[in-house]
Amino acid sequence: MSILSCPACGLRGEQNPSRGNLSDVLLSGLTIYPFRCQLCADRFRTFLGRRTPNPRRSFDRVEVSFPVWFKSRRSSISSGLGYEGVIDNLSIRGCRIRSTAPMRIGSRLELEFQYSDNSFPVTIEEAVVRSIAGGAIGLRFTKLHRSEERRIRQLIDVWLPELLHSV
Are 135 and 83 found together in one domain? Predict the structure, then answer.
């Protein structure tokens, strides 16, 4: 895919098209595709002049390594049934955790991670387990305070440009 610039924030990098409505499908016949910025999440359309497949994810995940603590949303705080793991990739809307915790697809989790020793933990109020494979748990964030989303965007802003320049 070609390198595009977001009209809202100016980030240059790969953007993933996500055709969501009838007008997007019709315009894709003319190779005008919808895109969503990896950083600011602004949605825009642009002419590519060639066909492109519809990828599964709306946002690329950046490779990270952050310790994470998580628990089921159904368990009480006093039950102490929490698990530990490592977030090995992160996006504005989800992440992948490496852990041996027993999970089921559809489970709702609450999680906290810390990206440095000097930072306050980032709290995800609710995430849904979307996939489980080989000790990896794929999560989609469903409840996230605006301030925490802003902090995740700042983290991605640090790692995404490094990722784009290394390709």
Answer: yes
Q: How far apart are CA 131 and CA 91, in angstroms?
A: 15
For 114-158, write each residue's pLDDT tens digit: 888 888 889 999 999 999 998 899 999 999 899 998 888 888 877
What's the average model confidence in pLDDT over 45-71? 70
Separation between Cα atoms, residue 5 and residue 92, nearest integer Å:
18
Question: In the numeric block, which tokens belong to residue 93?
Answer: 């809307």
Whether residues 99 and 39 fall in one domain: no
Instruction: Report the predicted TM-score, pTM, of the whole model to 2 decimal places.
Output: 0.62
Q: Are residues 9 and 87 in the same domain?
A: no
Residue 70 sits in which domain range?
Answer: 62-162
- The residue type of 55 is P
